[in-house]
Amino acid sequence: MNAATLPDGDWIRGISIKQPWTTAILTGAKQVENRPQRWSWRTWVLLHASQQIDRPALRLPLVARTIRDQPMNTGAVVGIARITDCHQDSEGSVPCSPWALPGSWHLELGDVQELPLPVPARGQLGPWKPAPDLLYQVFQQLPGFRL
After folding, report:
1. pLDDT digits (tens, 9 = 90+) for 70-93
2. In 10 A of CB 53, how many CB atoms?
3. Beta strands in the chain (DSSP E)
4. Of residues 106, 99, 138, the one with CA closest to residue 14
């Protein structure tokens, strides 16, 4: 598949995530994304690094170790991933991941691929449908991508 033959339909969405969390996902260490609501989407997502940076998170040892020496782009699509599941840990249970927040819904992310170059884009809250020209710019950088 190449950028010119991308399928139509709802096979992909965008998800905006504050830094440094986006970078932690791109490193492969953070395999869950915390959300306040359950997501029914089991699809590919563009990983959009929002303009905002979660500054207190930069002081967390787990985050600091994970993102060390990594670029933290903002306001751009920086990768893609596949949402494989969405779950919530049972009350009082051990969290599914050191990245999982209690009481949150956890999007399980797989097949994470970082883009060689960030693609400037505006994100939004909740899942969003990317414009065809944005998809084209993203998938020009991923010539080996397969659904």
Report:
1. 999 999 999 999 999 999 999 889
2. 16
3. 12-19, 32-35, 44-53, 76-87, 105-120
4. 138
**Closest by CA position to 118, among listed 144, 94, 136, 138:** 138
Q: How many CB atoms lie within 10 A of CB 25?
A: 25
Question: Where does residue 126 fall: left (phi above 0), alpha (psi -120 to 50 degrees), or beta otherwise?
Answer: left
- Report whether the peptide linkage leading into residue 20 is cis, meaning its omega lies within 30 degrees of zero: yes
Q: How far is Cα 68 from Cα 81, in angstroms, rounded to an integer?
A: 21
Q: Which residues of the chain have pLDDT under 70?
A: 1-7, 9
> Strand, helix or coil at 17?
strand
Taking the complete model, does pTM exceed 0.85, yes or no?
yes
Residues in the chain: 147
Reduced to 3 states (helix: H, G, I; strand: E, B; else coil), residue 28 is coil
- Name residue 86's beta-bridge partners: 107
Q: Cβ atoms within 10 A of the Cβ of 100, count?
A: 20
CB 108, CB 126: distance < 8 Å: no
